[in-house]
Amino acid sequence: MTSESARAAAFVAACLCLPTGLGRAETAIYVASQEAGAVTRVDGGPGSGPVTLGAGPAGLAAAPDRTLYLTHPESAAITAVGPDGRVLRRLPFRGQPFGIAVSADGMHLFVGDWKANTVSRVDAQSGAVEAATGVGREPAGLVVDAAGRVFVAERGGDSVSVLDGSTLERRAGLPVGRAPFALALSPDGDRLYVGNVRSNDLTVIDARAITVLATVPAGRSPYGVATSRDGGEILVTNQESGSVSILDRSLALRGEIPVGRYPEGVAVAGHRAYVANWFSNDVSVIDLGARREIERRKVPEGPRAVVAVPVPRGGEAGR
Fold first, then answer.
1. 214 in Cβ contact with 251 (< 8 Å)
2. How many CB atoms lie within 10 A of CB 304?
3. Structural domains of the chain, with CATH
4. How far, in Å, CA of 121 to CA of 129, rounded?
């Protein structure tokens, strides 16, 4: 990777579909720190604190059973971490794994190989590659929708591909802005939001019809994208301006919130957002109602990817 590519945050949205009947869920927030080689729970729940993984984790996604999966592009591996902070297994991966997403049943991982320009479907237990297909250059963000389709942001190709998750057949490709990186699906699955780093804008895709609806200005170097739980607000981190922009569903800008230095990944849990600030080694906590940062929490060096993981009521003590 180039130095800029190596610094690309791997904010990846995972499908966090929980079985029905589990009741109301709390949320655990995890942050991957690439420089420190660690993943940290930062919401104050049981097991909060860093778990040392070694060799720069980049991509981060969560399975329905709350297992975390992290990619290690420089050491060609994927690490699985349990909700109790134990490292469960380390899966070798031939190539440079970067972006990652998890199937709705938690049985399969979808892994983008940054160097080989492929996406592989990987058995989440054994690490066996079940299928692979070529995509555009530098596959970065990956996200899986409820229908099992895999959306891939192709940073070096200025495009987004749509794959059939069961066969990995490429169903469509759409041109977007320059250097698309982060992806976020709306809660209803109707829209896909794409942060375009080099053109400083946000592309909105109709995720059902697979057509581009609009491209609107964002801040300087938009790297992370997330939505509120009702889909009414879209959050975009702006690396170069150290802020988070908030847009409404009509794509009108409703506010810009200062955060730490070089914000990358962002995740939303209830009325709060959590932003990984790469240069200041902390996580900004944003009150979405007040639209302001309410605190910063220190984490190990180089935080970049963030994921919000639902926790079933009664699923952990000491909350």
1. yes
2. 28
3. 10-311 (2.130.10.10)
4. 6
Whole-prediction pTM value? Answer: 0.91
The DSSP call for residue 17 is P
Question: Do 100 and 81 meet the contact criterion of CB atoms below 8 Å apart?
Answer: no
Which residues lie closer than 8 Å to 209 by C-beta, 6 or more apart? none
Q: How far apart are CA 163 and CA 136, in angstroms?
A: 12
Closest CA to 9 of 44, 55, 84, 59: 59
pLDDT digits (tens, 9 = 90+) for 170-212: 999 999 999 999 999 999 999 999 999 999 999 999 999 999 9
Q: Which residues of 21-43 are buried (b: 16+ CB within 10 A; e: fewer)?
A: eeeeebbbbbbbbbebbbbbbbb
> What is d(CA 289, CA 228) in angstroms, rounded to the nearest whole number?
11
Q: Round to whole Å and give the CA distance between 203 and 151.
A: 14
DSSP string over 243-310: EEEEEETT--EEEEEE-SSSEEEEEEETTEEEEEETTTTEEEEEETTTTEEEEEEE-SSSEEEEEEEE
Q: Spell out a b/e string for 44-63, using b for 16 or more CB atoms within 10 Å of the CB, else e.
A: ebebbebbebeebbbbbbbb
* Distance in Å from the first CA to the final CA of the chain: 41
pLDDT digits (tens, 9 = 90+) for 221-257: 999 999 999 999 999 999 999 999 999 999 999 999 9
C-alpha to C-alpha distance for 233 and 156, rounded to whole angstroms:
28
